Amino acid sequence: MALLQTVDLKRYFGETRAVDNVNLSIEEGEFVSLVGPNGAGKTSLINVISARLTPESGKIIFKGEDITRLSVTQRVRAGIARSFQLVNVFDDLTTFDNVALAIFSREGKTAHLGTLAHLDHAVANEADAVLKQFGLAAKRGDNARDLSQGERKLLDVALAYALKPKLLFLDEPTSGVSTRDKGQIMDTIASVVRGEGITAVIVEHDMDVVFKYSDRIVVMAQGAILAQGTPDEIRKNEQVAMVLLGSSGPDAFTRKD
Amino acid sequence: MPAARTGPSVPVVLAVAVPVIVAFAVLPRVVDLYQTELLIYGLTFAIAALGFNLLLGYTGLLSFGHSAYFGMGAYTVAFIVRDLHVQSMELCILAGVLSTFVIAALFGYVCVRHTRIFFGILTLALSQVLWSLAFKFFWVTGGTDGIRVARTGITLLGGLIDFKGSGSYQKFVYAYYYYVLALFAISAALMWVIVHSPFGKALQAIRDNEIRAGFVGIRVRRYRWIAFVISGCFTGLAGVLWVPLNGLTTPDILYWPFSGEIVFMTVLGGFRTFTGPIVGAIAFNYLKVYAVASSQYWQMVLGCVLVVLVMVLPTGIVGTLARLGGKLRRG
Asked: Has residue A250 been placed in a domain?
């Protein structure tokens, strides 16, 4: 049984079919890339699955249960977490407090108002471990707003990761980051996610990154799934090359630089 | 590896807080009766502002209706003293905080469905409902005459201390000063724990980014509601303590300018710091008393102070002092 299954999922914005009859299936432990041109509906699909948007129709089945009507927080508790394309962290909290908060939330401790947060050593140790994994240990005392763009992107992912989700959506984790940092961020994310056996769906534009890290690639265009398959299958798919690159041929995905 | 410090050290905080409380305890021996009375007012307002700032500083919600909770506490005391002949201040506190809890839970339930200006307007509108009730139902509330609460009818510590007989005014001021100081210390300690608890961190996360707060699993609306109720109860306690001191409760304390005064106190001290509202409340009380005493245009004096404050010291007294302190330390 698939970990996540969407059934005829639809979300329109007026005439625009952002998500159009999508039947997406994600198996446990997979690292899936979601690709497609701008406006293909990748982020909208993630928004619908994570309850940022409500679908027009269709169903979302997670771990065999219909979660279509669950709220954001209910889906987070069920085990779905996500990061954001535009950095979405707690700017006036320290890097440490950002991650610690996610851990408190996961453990159902955010309702505790009679204990001091910083005296919870189990949470503190775990938060420090997460910061170390993401290379943010040196910045633990800095407010999130004072981090560099690359660090903020990592923190955004670390927040979602600290929830220990079953399924993690990463919406363009390397956008707005220099090419030099891109590889480093992806390496960090891939090693952390694979190390924990988390099922991950990542939206990414850089096809080198996509081919390097994915088990499977799902190509979207105009709100619908155009093709899906292993990196090799997608590399050879001429229709995909046309849509993504505007040209096809055997070397279409080979970088000419 | 020893865990690096991740939050305020409790011994350090106590090392600052205890001497401050001791200094306050010594003050009545140094200053006169009138100044002591002013300090009681200041400490009472400090409790109200502490409660208010849980919403503004920590949850990011600007309430323009906190007069409702202050007034609810005050009128509850007035009612039970007049109609049920209650004398014990502890019973008054219990009843006042309980009734404030109910009204804050009710009003909060409606208000936290909205944020920003809509939240502010709703809190304002609901507080004016209470004001109009106090204003119009004069056969219950005494209308603009209010309800008198004589300090001679009040006892402290379960009847241990009463204020009958000659010289009772002086006795009342000194005893009540320590009573309010103790409750202020307890309130401040409680609030300090709340804002440094996981719950307090969750509120700050909601303040910074409510959407992401939801995506880390925090039930934003519910947490705002809980913060609202706690905030209301602190302000309600302040209202309870204020009545015997003032000797009278009138609809003025339910009217929206009083909500504005609570906002003013908090901004004056600095809403981004824990101690800001405390310093602001005490300072505001002096400011207002002396402005009223020195000029019939006292509202204009306060208005000018507010304008200067927002333009020159947007972080308030405590925020500015902290910044100066930081500069000095760095040389």
From this structure: no
Question: In which residue are the tokens 């398959």 written?
Answer: A229
Tell me if A235 is assigned to some domain.
Answer: yes
Pairing of strands A57-62, A4-13: antiparallel
Q: Which residues pair with A168 in a beta bridge?
A: A81, A200
C-alpha distances in Å from residue B215, one per residue of A232, B4, B259:
34, 28, 34
Is A98 part of a structural domain of the chain?
yes
Cα–Cα distance list, B296 to B30, B257, B259 (Å): 30, 18, 22
User: How far does the CA of residue B51 sit from the closest CA of chain A (Å)?
Assistant: 15
Q: According to the model, what pLDDT value does residue A255 have?
A: 54
Gap between the Cα atoms of B227 and B108, Å rounded: 9
Q: Which of A76, A84, A125 sits opposite B217 (nearest CB)?
A: A76
CB–CB contact A110 B212 (8 Å): no
Give the H or E element holding residue B173: helix B168-195
Predicted local confidence at residue B1, as pLDDT: 39
Phi, psi of A217 (to 5 degrees): -125, 135
pLDDT at site B79: 94
Decide if A93 and B10 are in contact by the 8 Å CB cutoff.
Answer: no
Range of the domain at A94: 4-245
Q: How many helices (H) and strands (E) would you count in chain A?
A: 9, 11
CA distance B27 to chain A (A): 31
**In chain B, where are the structural domains located?**
10-255
Q: ipTM of this model?
A: 0.89
Q: Is B7 on the interface with A (CB under 8 A)?
A: yes
In the stretch 152-181 of chain A, residues with CB closer than 8 A to chain B read 159-160, 163
pLDDT at B177 over 50: yes
Cα(A47)–Cα(A92) distance, rounded to whole angstroms? 25
